Amino acid sequence: MLMMLALACTTAEDSADGDDVTHDGVDDEGLRTLDSCAESFAADVPAFYSTYFRCIDISMDGDEVVLGTNDLPPHKSSYYPESDPNWEAWDDRGGEYTQNPNSIATQGFVIRIPAAPVAKGITITDALVDLTMMTSDEEYSAGTIGVGLDGVSLYNATAGPGDDIRDEKYGFDMWEAHPSPDSAYHHHSPNPGALAVLVAAGFATTSVPGTAEVELFGINCDGTVVLGCTELDGSDVAAGELDAQGGHLGDLRDADGTTHFEGRYHTHMCAAIDVDAFTPEIQYYDSCEVAGAAP
Ligand SMILES: [Zn+2]
Ligand SMILES: [Zn+2]
């Protein structure tokens, strides 16, 4: 781990930034940003991860990709404690949005994703995708099930019986996220956090969901890739092919012609395709290992 950190500290990008980067995850002003956050990528991780992810530690363990994140967003949020440099005042957006009582705290999630996931062989129908927790054995569990490009947790898109996941957005901050009662900051839907990573890396020029040239949000524990309104190379999505959670199989090839995954199940959360543009509810592949939730 120390060696990976040392490598991460000697990249050209860090040198160009000069002493703005202190490598403890914050810049001179104490701010956690895409430039200051700590991250490391082992030399043997697939290019998909080192190309698209930031603010996260990624290594290989046999045939598993191991992603470790502290889940702290590299941007301001009203959900940081008020004493944190990344805190900003709540914007109630005309009185429609109300902050929840939780706040962000450091997590220690470790997600192990099979390099070659095995499909369960299920068909994802409207009956399975009901946005309600614990209505099927095929659902992802509650809590962190994946990670966004900026190291922030992805949750599934279910609410407890009697609640509607669609209503949760009125508690989201300006980055379309909120913290759980155990202080894990997370997304259920399209968000500018991941797209800001794509902008920083030169893949897109805007981080407004639905309008970016390429929309990739993250990856889930089982290997399901979460995209937005485009394929990885920026091409249009063949909407007619999608299952009940916006998913289908396809090669994930980027604009340079690099094929990162062949025949990989991935979903498109895109309001222009489905007004219920959420993270996947149903786990397509057979393995999901997430450990290290904060005590
Ligand atoms: Zn939530
Ligand atoms: Zn697709």
What does the model show?
The chain is globular, with a radius of gyration of 18 Å. It starts with a helix and ends with a strand. It has helices spanning 2-8, 12-17, 47-52, 192-200; strands spanning 40-41, 57-61, 64-69, 109-114, 146-148, 153-154, 178-179, 185-187, 216-220, 225-227, 247-253, 259-268, 289-291. Helix 3 links the parallel strand 1 and strand 2 (57-61). Helix content is 9%, strand content 19%. It has 295 residues and is mainly beta. The longest helix is centred in the middle third of the chain and has 9 residues, at 192-200. It has an 8-stranded mixed beta sheet.
Name the strands of the widest sheet in spatial order: 7-8-6-5-9-10-12-11
Strand content: 15-25%
Instruction: Name the poorly predicted regions.
Output: 1-23
The helix-strand sequence is HHEHEEEEEEEHEEEEE
Radius of gyration, in Å, reads 18 Å
| Overall mean pLDDT | 91
Net shape: globular
User: Fraction of residues in helices?
Assistant: under 10%
Tally of separate helices: 4
Q: List the bound ligands.
A: zinc ion
Largest sheet: 8 strands, mixed
Structure summary, number of beta strands: 13
The chain-level structural class is mainly beta
Termini separation comes to: 23 Å
Short key terms for the protein model shown above:
13 strands; binds zinc ion; eight-stranded mixed sheet; 4 helices; 9% helix; disordered N terminus; mainly beta; globular; 295 residues; five-stranded mixed sheet
